[in-house]
Amino acid sequence: MTIDEFLHYYKRNFHRTSSFFVGFILMLVDAAALMLSIGTSFFIINAINNAFINFRSFVTYSVYLPLILIVFYASGLYPGIMISPVEEIKRFGICTFFSFVGIAISIFVDTNTESIAVAVALMLAVPIATVFLPIARQAARFAFGRYRWWGLPAVIYCTGSSGDAVINRMIERTDLGYKPAVIINSGRIAANLYSGIPVFSPSEELLRLIKTFKIKAAILCDYGETDVSDIMQTYRYTITVSKHQTRSVSGSPQIKDIGGIVGFASTHNLTKKTNLFAKRLIDLLLILLSFPIVLPVCAVVSLIIKLTSPGPVFYGHLRVGKNGKSIKCWKFRSMCQDADKKLDEILAHNPEMQKQWERDRKLVDDPRVTAVGKFIRKTSIDELPQFLNILTGEMSFIGPRPVTQGELIKYGEQADYILSVTPGLSGMWQTSGRSDTEYEERITLDTYYIQNWSVWLDIWLIIKTVWVVFKRKGAY
Fold this sequence. Notes:
By secondary structure, the chain is of the alpha/beta class. It is 52% helix and 13% strand. The longest helix has 36 residues, at 273-308.
């Protein structure tokens, strides 16, 4: 099969697939299962004593459905593709428990007999819903799995016949959600089709086409570690299946069930629009809350710098931002004038400082730093002008630290992956040791952050940043 033939094949078979549509269908199924669970629990209480509760009144609690479904969404139950049955049941159990308990408590405030009976019925609905919800979902998956519009296309990466078992299972189990769209085989290819699925060798042309189609998922079957790093930059979701692998590539094992074959999922959490919106909202709220404190501090520091050292108050350092775009990271000037020229002279006459600069891109006892500069660096006050970068969207409060063009070589194959997100004022490596952290550890921490991002992780890192600044650890 040629690339052009694959283009027509893909459009014919996958142009109607959508994670939103799959998630929406499962949301409707969940809503029906929830109402059936509540209705069943009301029926049981009514059967015990019809004086306690009006069975038909259960329909009035449908007003709570949107809130419960939002809780389901927040726990990662949508689009609900390839979640292991155990994990799905666990999430349903936790979500329904807290949702129904919350509703029951709000009703229990009114202590008449019917309110107490309703609260008891809602508590009874928790175990019922934990059973009904997975059953309803599985029934929907089996019912809709045979249609072309159900599920999401996935690229299968394998070497030789290493992916045969996974591909066969995905073909047999259409309810799983992912459908093999194309096989990329790095070994010797015996045929250009496998069970009707196109097979290609890796190529730039094919990769460009995959990006054009916006295929979000890849399944890697005994693929090399180096290739894994490259692939994770292209897809939102990757699942690795290996006879020898015992943990996920991301370092946080998220088990995926491929019809009985165990896979380990890695995600790029900062490509999801909802996550990006939440992250941007946090940034704007923090700016709004901190401005009354930050603005007076900036005014005082600006005046002191102007009075104690010739030159501009601010210094714009050229860094590499999201997707390789050049940005100016603003700081209070902490060095003397012509600091860049003086750096060349210092490094030329001091081999130890030369080694330190090449390793860390910083000097512990930098002779170019002014007296005021030492204080604002030690307290991280010199970073406050970067609030402007955050306000314009060039930076975020938390993220991988923006690097210079010269530093990118140290990031190797991970450079493009780390540049795929908005850089941050602080991040995991800063809070783990700030300037004392080695580059290899920085890359590991930044990669972990991207793959495991959550609102709670950002909040925790903001708290840790305040603590690290207070201790003045690793700053110079």
